[in-house]
Specification:
Domain Aminoacyl-transfer RNA synthetases class-II family profile (chains A, B): 143-443
Radius of gyration of chain A: 26 Å
Binding site for L-aspartate (chains A, B): 176, 219, 369, 373
Strand content of chain A: 25-35%
EC number (chains A, B): 6.1.1.23
Low-confidence stretches of chain A: none
Number of strands of chain A: 19
Catalytic activity (chains A, B): tRNA(Asx) + L-aspartate + ATP = L-aspartyl-tRNA(Asx) + AMP + diphosphate
CATH class of the largest domain in chain A: Alpha Beta
Oligomer: homodimer
Number of helices of chain A: 12
Largest interface: A-B, 124 and 124 residues
Shape of chain A: elongated
Helix content of chain A: 25-40%
Protein name (chains A, B): Aspartate--tRNA(Asp/Asn) ligase
CATH superfamily of the largest domain in chain A: Bira Bifunctional Protein, Domain 2
Strand order of the largest sheet of chain A: 7-11-12-19-18-17-14-13
Distance between the termini of chain A: 41 Å
CATH architecture of the largest domain in chain A: 2-Layer Sandwich
Structural class of chain A: alpha+beta
Chain lengths: 443, 443
């Protein structure tokens, strides 16, 4: 019998180790995928794609053991050679090849020139060929940035006393209700896919006080816009013992700051590849919904059509206003109208037509919805009744309040939307590995 | 307009800060939920539940501003008082109350005595009253341990060059296929809930080389056992450029070691509350499937009924065998029969009836399935054809291999099962916040 005793030490070197190797006769072993080949006759430049970036390898007639005509783009190889300084190579180093072993070979030529710096193709084609288009260096860098955001969310919240939870995605009733739910049969019982972990994270405030979850949510909305996905990753937090919804805004500001620091520290390479300038997050202005509407109506001479809702165009103008007037990419729009918020939102005791809630706009796009929730059982069931809603399927949620809950609130952040705005992309699908929309169920 | 400028400093103290306060006349401010009240007449012990544990507060007639009869279990309060040394109190300190402010009050008495050390009730009742039963100190501690496992998985894999991915849970075809899929209508197209991120994580190996995901998976299996859930959290990894499936076993061993270290360091309190002795993870034995069957058949005089499958009882006996013979809680069972593994599993070139795959058993229960995958396009499509399977809905997955993939493999760990075995529980529902099984869709 064999033992598995911790990670096997690999003989092959990864990029950070390779870049530390000094020019010498020492042979090193490297694995990677052939990203591109430029054959000049007696020598050929073979660019290897590794998880940390590209490495220039040089094939030389008579010095490398494999004939260059046996090597092709898409091959996965294990090679050995020596490291040499070379100004014109990426990272200033190249690997002169002595041996090339082909580990696996593609069965067909690549359908996209993924070695181009920028993929010269439509979003539609990129998405249709997603497994291949993501192999482009810029395309994949986006998802390292996305990783950084999600990682920052968790790391920051651990440091603030939050507990991570995993709540079910199959449920019997949605938090916001109605037409935007995917429905299916669960062992002959009617079931839905959760559009938010809202009920569960509130329930868990009664247990752990501060909780978060990073997971998929599902919305059957018949929107086919550049901002909507029918499945996305939601970064959710919920916290007890708040004094006001400003505690939630402050926690989000703290998260955003932490994110920018983590990206600068750990994702500098990807920021550079993508040419991203990180937004300022020192302090974020809060403006009331009604005031925001008036400000943009005045400055941009736009008539207010509906005083109780924000149109996408208005969101963009609010973003523009705060960029122009305060040089700020972010703004919290607070006190949304009650009729536009779910029943569990806490109404403003000073004016019950509005709620103690907010959206965060980032460059004119809503990336977060949050606010204070009702914690009193009678207030909650009273509001439910005034809205003519049934308690059916919500008994357990409501009982949580019957047995006592602290004042609390929370928020949900759309990971893809936040990533999209950081990247400066204009379609949320650019920030989703495998988007699901009304027309797209594959790959 | 207001600014949100990072986390608001709270005046109230959390438990770690409180325990650092020396006995003095300094008044401190604390928030929490009234976990229990023991009223002795002139004084009353009011145990406050906070996210980090319990705090003994003492109400005294004439010294505390609120009458004790106005306080009840389940109240959320903000109190002030002074800290005093008290041997008999949890942590050796108590808070003598001067002021009590009730932030919120339950509408009904608690249906369970959650302040008991061990909830004296059936699993069924605990699950029915989950929002409340989780408020018990021991119940909630389990999910801190679960947090630790999931956190360790991510932290360890970041350190090993893995990239986190978020893959869709709505798909058009499952990795293992067939009857164990939940089906539904996605904008009038037939869709399924993914039973594994298998196809996507393999696709992403072509992009990032090493990837992981922590997310929900869905299985419509008609099992109603102590080991099955119809929705669970899967910890998945997939890695390229492996030499053999032993690279995967080694990575899992590394993860398990890291987990035990993290639990000891950051979750010592919960380990103590639950009386958990962590298992040894220095090295883990690997035994071939066929050999494992023979060993237990011989030692426990049990006839081998089916040479190509492991029954749950056999798994338990293998666990027992390796505990008795090697004092090991873990064992990798390797080289599972090909007919029991999905088409993408790499067959053993030395004997094609078996695969280069494994399960990890932890105290006799399968907690992981993994192995090397086929990376060659022709080998993969050939095996598909020999099994008489259709390519429909898998075109994109298969094309990934057509355009080149490195040798690779990976694994999936059931978070709830791993937690259950760490906790020494005998039902996986004890390690799931809100279990979904054939009969349970709520809460």
């Amino acid at each position: 019998m064999e033992f598995a005793a911790g990670i096997l030490k690999k003989e092959t070197l990864e990029l950070p180790q390779i870049l530390e190797v000094k020019e010498s006769d020492r042979e090193i072993l490297v694995e990677g995928t052939v990203h591109s080949i430029r054959n000049m006759g007696e020598i050929a430049f073979v660019i290897l794609r590794k998880r940390d970036g590209l490495l220039q390898a040089v094939w030389e007639e008579g010095k490398t053991d494999l004939s260059i005509c046996h090597l092709k783009e898409g091959d996965c190889v294990r090679v050995s050679g020596t490291i040499h300084e070379e100004e014109r190579a990426p990272h200033g180093k190249e690997l002169r090849l002595s041996k090339v072993e082909i580990l696996s070979s593609p069965a067909a030529p690549l359908p996209l020139a993924i070695d181009k710096w920028k993929l010269n193709t439509s979003l539609e084609t990129k998405l249709n060929l997603r497994p291949i288009s993501l192999r482009n260096i810029k395309e994949r860098a986006r998802f390292k940035i996305q990783e950084g955001v999600c990682r920052a969310f968790r790391e920051f919240l651990y440091s603030q006393g939050f507990t991570e939870v995993h709540t079910p995605k199959i449920g019997s009733k949605g938090a916001e209700g109605g037409s935007s739910l995917f429905k299916f049969s669960y062992f002959h019982k009617p079931a839905i896919l959760e559009q938010s972990p809202q009920f569960y994270k509130q329930i868990m405030v009664g247990v752990f006080d501060r909780v978060f979850e990073t997971g998929p949510v599902f919305r059957a909305e018949k929107h086919n816009t550049r901002r909507h996905l029918n499945e996305y990753t939601s970064l959710d937090l919920e916290m007890g013992y708040i004094d006001s919804f400003m505690d939630i805004c402050a926690m989000e500001t703290g998260f955003l700051r932490y994110t920018m620091e983590l990206l600068k520290k750990e994702y500098a390479k990807e920021l550079k590849i993508l040419g991203i300038r990180l937004p300022g997050t020192d302090k974020i202005l809060c403006v009331r919904f009604t005031e925001a509407k008036e400000l943009v109506s005045e400055k941009y001479r736009r008539k207010i059509k509906n005083p109780f809702d924000l149109e996408p165009e208005e969101e963009e103008l609010i973003g523009r206003y705060f960029k122009e007037e305060y040089d700020s990419d972010f703004v919290f729009v607070t006190h949304y109208p009650s009729k536009k918020r779910p029943f569990y939102a806490m109404d403003d005791p000073e004016d019950e037509r509005f709620t103690l809630s907010f959206d965060l706009l980032f460059k004119g796009l809503e990336v977060t919805t949050g606010g204070q929730r009702i914690h009193d059982y009678n207030m909650l069931t009273g509001k439910l009744e005034r809205r003519g809603m049934s308690r059916e399927g919500m008994e357990q949620y409501l009982d949580t309040f019957k047995y006592g809950m602290p004042p609390h609130g929370g928020l949900g952040i759309g990971l893809e939307r936040l990533t999209m705005q950081l990247l400066g992309e204009d379609n949320v699908r650019e920030a989703c590995l495998f988007p699901r929309d009304m027309n797209r169920l594959e790959p």
